[in-house]
TrEMBL record:
This is 4-hydroxy-3-methylbut-2-en-1-yl diphosphate synthase (flavodoxin). NCBIfam families: ispG_gcpE, PRK00366.1. Binds 1 [4Fe-4S] cluster. [4Fe-4S] cluster binds at C298, C301, C344, E351. The gene is ispG. It comes from Chloracidobacterium validum.
Length: 407
């Protein structure tokens, strides 16, 4: 089944990165450092960007965090890191952006949650104040609705209206509709204040996969704003990765989604950049974008009692990732390279032939030799303790020959 044509959306410029308008789906991430800790935040933003995050969001929750933003930008520039920073605002964004004009100027985008800008009469006043600052500094805005912080007055009003219907909707259906309404009414209000149509991005994020798919399908049909897609809280480990891959993948398959974030909960002291790699892998395995050569490897069975193919697959995937910062500028197109490391004769030769470069390692009872296939043709056979370095040397020569700029 082919991926649907991308939904039509207006292009929005976020610090030089285009979201929507048919541009490639953008990968973004968010720091979990205390933004006021300049050194730690610069370190993590740089790491996320190096891993492939094209936009990085930071929390701007108090005056110390707001005051730190210019120092963070300067610290990144000293490292040669140019990545759009998005300010994440809740409750007090109107005052922080007003009181810290350099921060308002340096941030590439403001993220606003309509449920957390104020309550009662203050809601529209505070929202208007942020939008007017976005207009003044010519910044785009993401109107990010979250189910856990949905505008309660709107939800209550819609629940009351629903109760008066002859055939009331379920509470779940009303909540999903309220999320769409909150985003679209906020966007309409922002435009009425003067924010251009092409400076608005929308998200309606939720934590359950089926709800996520339903609410994004609904809002995609009702507007042409670019959509930021992802679960609000995906969770930890396999659960978070699987839920994100299914939810985001189903929407991308429908042509919905202009930028994505995988909101993984890292293990204590874990690597924050994992969420970037997962987002990239979702896009790459779906054939939407390519970021780094991927290794196809068999899962192993009773025929592959040796762990050599597992170790070799891991070593080669690590090697490819380590080379990409150099290769992506030296060898254009190398990110689409396909490598296969297989463990026995059953599928080994076939998979290796389908890859650009493949090796079929010997399984239990097989001849202790490893045929190597290049562009579907067997070119040599490796054996002995130097199989891995010998294959990497073949890999390097292939990359140079196929992707070298002279070609």
């Amino acid at each position: 089944m082919a991926i649907a044509l991308r939904r039509t959306s207006v292009p929005v410029n976020v610090g030089g990165v285009i979201i929507g308008g048919g541009a490639p789906v953008v990968v973004q991430s968010m720091t979990n450092t205390d933004t006021a800790d300049v050194a730690a935040t610069v370190e993590q933003v740089a790491a996320l960007h190096a891993a492939g995050s094209e936009i990085v969001r930071i929390t701007v929750n108090d005056r110390d965090a707001a005051a730190a933003v210019p120092e963070i930008v300067r610290g990144l520039r000293r490292r040669g890191v140019e990545v759009p920073l998005v300010g994440d605002f809740h409750y007090n964004g109107h005052t922080l952006l007003r009181d810290f004009p350099e921060t308002a100027r340096l941030l590439a985008k403001y993220r606003i949650n309509p449920g957390n800008v104020g309550f009662g009469k203050k809601h529209d006043e505070n929202f208007k104040a942020i939008i007017e600052l976005a207009i003044q500094y010519e910044k785009p805005v993401r109107i990010g609705v979250n189910w856990g912080s949905l505008d309660q007055s709107m939800l209550a009003r819609m629940m009351d209206e629903n109760a008066r219907r002859e055939a009331p909707l379920s509470a779940r259906e009303v909540m999903l509709e309220a999320m769409c309404a909150s985003a679209l009414e906020s966007a309409e209000l922002a435009e009425s204040i003067g924010l251009p149509h092409d400076r608005i991005i929308i998200s309606t994020k939720i934590s359950e996969v089926q709800d996520l798919v339903e609410v994004y399908r609904a809002i995609a049909a009702r507007c042409d704003y670019p959509l930021h897609v992802g679960l609000t809280e995906a969770g930890m480990g396999a659960k978070g990765i699987v839920a994100s891959a299914i939810g985001i993948g189903l929407l991308l398959q429908d042509g919905i989604g202009d930028t994505i974030r995988v909101s993984l909960t890292p293990t204590p002291g874990g690597d924050r950049t994992e969420e970037v790699r997962v987002a990239q892998t979702i896009l790459q395995t779906m054939g939407i974008r390519s970021f780094t050569p991927l290794v196809t490897a068999c899962p192993g069975c009773g025929r592959t009692t040796s762990t050599l193919f597992q170790e070799m697959a891991q070593d080669i995937q690590t090697y490819l990732r380590e080379q990409m910062p150099i290769w992506k500028t030296r060898y254009p197109g190398v990110e689409a390279l396909k490598v296969a490391v297989m463990g026995c004769i059953v599928n080994g030769p076939g998979e290796s032939k389908h890859a650009d470069l493949g090796i079929s390692l010997p399984g239990t009872g097989e001849d202790p030799k490893a045929p190597v296939f290049v562009d579907g043709v067997k070119t040599t056979t490796l054996e002995g303790e130097q199989i891995v370095p010998a294959f990497i040397e073949i890999l390097n020569r292939y990359v140079e020959r196929r992707f070298g700029q002279s070609n």
